[in-house]
Amino acid sequence: MNLIVNCAAFDVDMVYADAALVVVNKPSGLLCVPGRGPDKQDCLGRRVTAQFADALVVHRLDMATSGLCVFARNPAAQTALSKAFAARQVHKRYEAVVAGKPVETPDEQGWSLIDLPLIADWPNRPLQKVDLESGKPSLTRWRVSQDLSKPVWPDATRLQLAPLTGRSHQLRVHLLALGHPIVGDALYAPAEVQQRAPRLLLHACELGFVHPQTGQDVLLSCAVPF
Predict the structure, then answer these.
(1) From the CB of residue 210, how many other CB atoms can be counted at a distance below 10 Å?
(2) Per-residue pLDDT tens for 58-69?
(3) Using alpha carbons only, how large is the chain's radius of gyration in Å?
(4) Whether the Cβ atoms of residue 69 and residue 61 lie closer than 8 Å to each other
């Protein structure tokens, strides 16, 4: 049995909550956990624990990325969910708008694959980079979105993304390496592409996983705000 919950509007913060977990819709521009300095103490984690004092971090999204983020409500649930993410047992879907039109090399399901190892760009932290010799294996599936109801961005393409690994900035660096950086990306896109949007056009729109207590399949979705 699948549990399906839809977030009807982007300004709805709470997507799902029960005794074991909380799923929220993180806005772009908000850290998941506190950063260094007094100006970086407001974060998603603190906002969630203000409502659910037992909430524990399971995974993170980039500050500039919006969308679904999961918190556990007890250590056992945190362990189970963290293991599921690490073992690639979590269904993840993102949507992005990228500059230009990528050339597809689709498989039978219509997905193209980016297979480029990534590593931290230490002199330019927090940036990441492709490193064919020393990078960690990193895989991203992508395909052009066929949803005609979404806004059309000029000289850009809307993509569905399915990361098979979870490296830092993976989607942003992989699409840059493909030659089609994400519109609004202040870290990786050229100035002209960055300035096309007031935010990074990357949103975590769908998550699926096995519930850590009930064993049921959970599928959560949240509307893309751009």
Answers:
(1) 15
(2) 999 999 999 999
(3) 17
(4) yes
Q: Would strands 112-115 and 14-17 be described as parallel, antiparallel, or unpaired?
A: unpaired
In which band, very low, low, confident or very high, does the pLDDT at 2 lie, cut at 50, 70 and 90? very low
Rounded to whole angstroms, the Cα distance separating 171 from 159 reads 11
Dihedral sign for Cα 1, 87, 63, 78, please. Answer: positive
* Identity of the residue numbered 50: A
Instruction: Say which amino acid occupies 83.
Output: K
89 token code pair: 């047992």
Is this prediction's pTM over 0.90?
A: yes
Nearest C-alpha neighbor of 179 from the set 93, 114, 105, 109: 114
Cα–Cα distance measured from residue 193 to residue 107, given in angstroms and rounded to the nearest whole number = 29
Residue 9 predicted with pLDDT over 60: no
Over the stretch 171-201, which tens digit does the pLDDT of each residue have? 999 999 999 999 999 999 999 999 999 999 9
Residues recognised as catalytic: 62
Confidence band (pLDDT; 50, 70, 90) for 47? very high
Q: Peptide bond preceding 126: is omega within 30 degrees of 0, i.e. cis? A: yes
CA angle 5, 205, 201 (to 5 degrees): 150
Using an 8 Å Cβ cutoff, are 91 and 46 in contact?
no
Query: Are 142 and 114 contacting, i.e. CB atoms less than 8 angstroms apart?
Result: yes
